[in-house]
Design brief:
By secondary structure, the chain is of the alpha+beta class. It contains four helices and eleven strands; from the N terminus they run H-E-E-E-H-E-E-H-E-E-H-E-E-E-E. The protein has a single domain, classed as Oxidoreductase, molybdopterin-binding domain (Sulfite Oxidase, Chain A, domain 2, Alpha-Beta Complex), CATH 3.90.420.10. Bound molecules: the ligand Nc1nc2c(c(=O)[nH]1)N[C@H]1C(S)=C(S)[C@@H](COP(=O)(O)O)O[C@H]1N2 and molybdenum atom (MO). Molybdenum atom (MO) binds next to loops.
Length: 215
């Protein structure tokens, strides 16, 4: 079991290294900075949310996977923790202009979860809802990028309540508002639907390399 787990971690690290090579193409190799335009690097980890930080003990947490799937899922903590776990290293870019490098996340990949549910070919978007009422939207392909995961740990420790524990989504290639904390529900849909910030003037896609902050 332990060997299997290790093999999976190694596989993921290799996958990340391949993806990282592409990303770091932006950092150094081609003389382009690792820091997206308009960002500044921080060493701390700021907390940003709507001001409600729901307290969801693992025993009360459930993740619903619904919409255009062959099998709807309702995963409690034990079911989630029993799925293959991976570790990924990625940078955070917040639209409020801070970036934080080398965050080590542990959890279940979005690809694995999508495979469990069997996403229909008609799905084009993913609508995400959280325990604080927050929502956000992603294009299906972006949600399925190989560096995306449903994370329960950061740098080896359980994600704290303020940072979205027990489980948050991590979508490293987009501004961090696309990474919902206290994740509750994932809906695969055939139409896009703007979420909380997208409804309030944030960009619908939110690519930091293109500085898609507002509008
Ligand atoms: N559920 C939920 N997720 C959320 C938010 C929120 O208010 N509620 N804020 C988003 C925004 S705007 C940012 S920048 C990041 C901040 O994550 P952090 O507090 O762990 O740094 O969470 C994102 N995910
Ligand atoms: Mo943000």
């Amino acid at each position: 079991m332990a060997d299997e787990y290790k093999a999976k971690l190694v596989e993921t690290k290799q996958a990340w290294a391949r993806a990282g090579r592409l990303l770091t193409g932006r950092s150094g190799e081609h003389g382009v900075d690792r820091l997206p335009p308009g960002q500044r690097l921080v060493q701390n980890w700021p907390v940003l949310d709507l001001g409600i930080q729901p307290d969801i003990p693992k025993a009360d947490w459930t993740l619903t996977v619904t919409g255009l799937v062959k099998t709807e899922l309702s995963l409690d903590w034990d079911a989630f923790a029993a799925e293959p776990q991976v570790e990924m290293l990625s940078d955070i870019h917040c639209v409020t202009q801070w970036s934080r490098y080398d965050n080590r996340w542990t959890g279940v990949t979005t690809r694995h979860l999508a495979g469990m549910a069997g996403v229909s070919e008609t799905a084009t978007h993913v609508l995400l809802s959280s325990y604080d009422g927050y929502t956000t939207n992603l294009r299906l392909a972006d949600f399925l990028d190989e560096d995306c995961l449903l994370a329960h740990s950061h740098d080896g420790d359980p994600i704290t309540r303020e940072h979205g524990g027990p489980v948050r989504l991590v979508v490293p290639r987009y501004y961090f508002w696309k990474s919902p904390k206290w994740l509750k529900r994932i809906e695969f849909a055939s139409a896009d639907k703007p979420g909380f910030w997208e409804d309030r003037g944030y960009h619908n896609v939110g690519d930091p390399w293109l500085e898609q902050r507002y509008g």
